[in-house]
Amino acid sequence: MTNPDIIFAPVVTEKSAMNAQKGIYTFKVDKRATKTQIKKTIENQFGVHVAKLNTLVTKPKDRRVGKYTGKTKTYKKAIVTLKSGETIDL
């Protein structure tokens, strides 16, 4: 797995926007990526220092369209805390 393939996109929600002001950023990442790989990729790609890294795999949610039911896709989410004074321009 190469480094640019690990990070898919930033998660853009109200909560993640408020956390970004505190230096905490959220990204969708590859499910097979480890914390070490994610940390190295973020540090190389954005030129910052990661202080803390938490990961979680989202659960699928039930959705209905008419009489058809299904589930949303799951993905791995990385919550990255940067060292004080550093920011990422998304």
Explain what you see:
With 90 residues, this protein is α+β, with helices and mostly antiparallel strands. The chain has one domain: Alpha-Beta Plaits (2-Layer Sandwich). 21% of the residues lie in helices and 37% in strands. The chain has helices at 14-20, 35-46; strands spanning 7-10, 24-29, 50-57, 62-65, 68-71, 76-82. Strands 1-2-6-3 form a four-stranded antiparallel β-sheet. A two-stranded antiparallel sheet has the order 4-5. Strand 4 and strand 5 form a beta hairpin. The mean pLDDT is 93.
In short:
The protein is of the alpha+beta class. It has helices spanning 14-20, 35-46; strands spanning 7-10, 24-29, 50-57, 62-65, 68-71, 76-82. Strands 1-2-6-3 form a 4-stranded antiparallel β-sheet. Strands 4-5 form a two-stranded antiparallel sheet.
Topology:
Layout: E1 7-10, H1 14-20, E2 24-29, H2 35-46, E3 50-57, E4 62-65, E5 68-71, E6 76-82
Antiparallel strand pairs: 1-2, 2-6, 3-6, 4-5
Key features?
single chain; Alpha-Beta Plaits; four-stranded antiparallel beta sheet; two-stranded antiparallel sheet; elongated; alpha+beta
